[in-house]
């Protein structure tokens, strides 16, 4: 049985991030750098769940990797990611080691496949807990592992099982419980339920939501291409396209009153013929030279291929990057 003296602490404060002018480029060899995101700016505060929505290649995961301090040379990350008064991009390796897991934990895409298949779930969990220094004895690690499993609605018996004996949903719950072991203030989830069927997906997401409302984590950053998952999970959605944030608004505004034409397409408020590019398009728009939606936008004007529209505030908590707004 799990001991009562190993408490999983509720997060009462912290978990605020301030991302400013974040640019990330990946090294492609021969001094070539491929921009993956440009001029990303956002703040999150304690208790907030923020979604980053976009298609594959939009730069969502890149932002998450940068927040974790995982963009390393020869790749380049510039700008600021302020957490607890410090810039993550300027942290030493020692500071980063503390920051990752203890302050911010990330569940990577397909993380459930990372469990060691020849070790029991318990061994997988105990080793991580001991490695991170959460507790210092095998006995305490076992107690905490069992407690964490029950926190994500798994039975104690799972501790003795092997990963191949678990369904995909159970494996993902194990991964979530492991991410909670260090009491992170922010939990970053990168496509956490993509490999699961719809019913399991929403069951796992409901558990994550409960953990959040119970204060097990102070803030959530959810990376997902699925707008229904985002709408279910977060308070606010940032929409990215080709490395740029094109809209950022509370969920209700995004779903009912989005302003950016791309967001309107995602929420089915605007129909476009995606097989055709606009006749006005001289070339395929580069995300860094013009509006990333210019080739498909029914409202595109000539400047849309020449200038990147700035992300401007058009209402309380609502930012949009489109020349149709802001004069
Ligand atoms: Fe369309 Fe131009 Fe607005 Fe981009 S900036 S969404 S191309 S109108």
List the defining traits of the structure above.
327 residues; alpha/beta; Rossmann fold; globular; 8-stranded mixed sheet; 28% helix; binds iron/sulfur cluster; 4-stranded antiparallel sheet; 22% strand
Q: What does this protein structure show overall?
A:
The protein has 327 residues and is an alpha/beta fold. 28% of the residues lie in helices and 22% in strands. The protein has helices spanning 60-67, 93-103, 121-131, 138-151, 168-179, 198-213, 227-233, 251-257, 261-266; strands at 17-27, 33-44, 49-53, 76-83, 86-87, 104-107, 186-190, 219-224, 236-241, 244-250, 312-315, 318-320. Strands 6-7-8-3-9-10-12-11 form an 8-stranded mixed β-sheet, sandwiched between helices. Helix 3 (121-131) crosses helix 4. The longest helix has 16 residues, at 198-213. The radius of gyration is 21 Å and the shape is globular. Bound molecules: iron/sulfur cluster (SF4). Iron/sulfur cluster is lined by residues 260-261, 291, 293-294, 297, 299-300, 304, 309, 322-324.
Give the CATH H-level superfamily of the largest domain: P-loop containing nucleotide triphosphate hydrolases
> Which small-molecule species are bound to the chains here?
iron/sulfur cluster
CATH topology of the largest domain: Rossmann fold
Instruction: Tell me the number of strands.
Output: 12
Number of domains: 2
Tell me roughly what share of residues is in helical segments. 25-40%
Roughly what fraction of the amino acids lie in strands? 15-25%
Q: What's the CATH first level of the largest domain? A: Alpha Beta
Radius of gyration: 21 Å
Provide the spatial order of strands within the biggest beta sheet. 6-7-8-3-9-10-12-11
Q: How far apart are the first and last residues' alpha carbons, in Å?
A: 64 Å
Please state the second-level CATH architecture of the largest domain. Answer: 3-Layer(aba) Sandwich
Strand-pairing-aware structural class? alpha/beta
Q: What's the helix count?
A: 9
What's the pLDDT, averaged over the residues?
88
Encode the helix/strand succession as letters: EEEHEEHEHHHEHEHEEHHEE
């Amino acid at each position: 049985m799990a001991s009562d003296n190993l408490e999983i602490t509720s997060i009462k404060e912290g978990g605020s991030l301030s991302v400013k002018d974040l640019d990330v480029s990946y090294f492609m060899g021969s001094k070539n750098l491929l921009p993956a995101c440009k001029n990303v700016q956002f703040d999150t505060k304690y208790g907030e769940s923020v979604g980053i929505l976009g298609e594959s290649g939009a730069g969502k995961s890149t932002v998450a990797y940068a927040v974790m301090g995982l963009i390393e040379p020869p790749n380049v990350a510039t700008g600021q990611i302020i957490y607890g008064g410090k810039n993550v991009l300027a942290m030493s390796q020692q500071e980063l080691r503390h920051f990752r897991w203890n302050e911010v934990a990330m569940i990577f895409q397909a993380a459930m496949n990372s469990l060691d298949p020849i070790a029991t779930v318990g061994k997988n969990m105990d080793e991580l807990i001991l490695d991170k220094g959460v507790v210092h004895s095998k006995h305490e690690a076992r107690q905490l592992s069992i407690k964490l499993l029950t926190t994500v609605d798994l039975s104690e018996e799972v501790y003795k099982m092997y990963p191949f004996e678990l369904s995909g949903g159970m494996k993902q719950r194990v991964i979530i419980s492991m991410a909670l072991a260090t009491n992170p203030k922010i939990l970053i989830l990168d496509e956490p339920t993509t490999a699961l069927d719809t019913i399991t997906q929403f069951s796992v997401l409901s558990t994550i939501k409960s953990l959040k409302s119970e204060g097990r984590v102070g803030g959530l950053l959810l990376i997902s291409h699925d707008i229904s998952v985002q709408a279910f999970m977060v308070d606010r959605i940032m929409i990215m396209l080709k490395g740029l944030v094109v809209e950022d608004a509370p969920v209700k505004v995004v779903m009912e009153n989005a302003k950016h034409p791309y967001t309107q397409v995602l929420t089915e408020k605007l129909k476009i013929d995606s097989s055709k590019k606009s006749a006005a398009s001289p070339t395929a728009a580069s995300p860094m030279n013009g509006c990333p939606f210019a080739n498909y936008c029914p409202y595109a004007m000539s400047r849309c291929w020449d200038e990147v529209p700035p992300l401007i505030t058009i209402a309380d908590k609502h930012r949009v990057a489109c020349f149709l707004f802001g004069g």
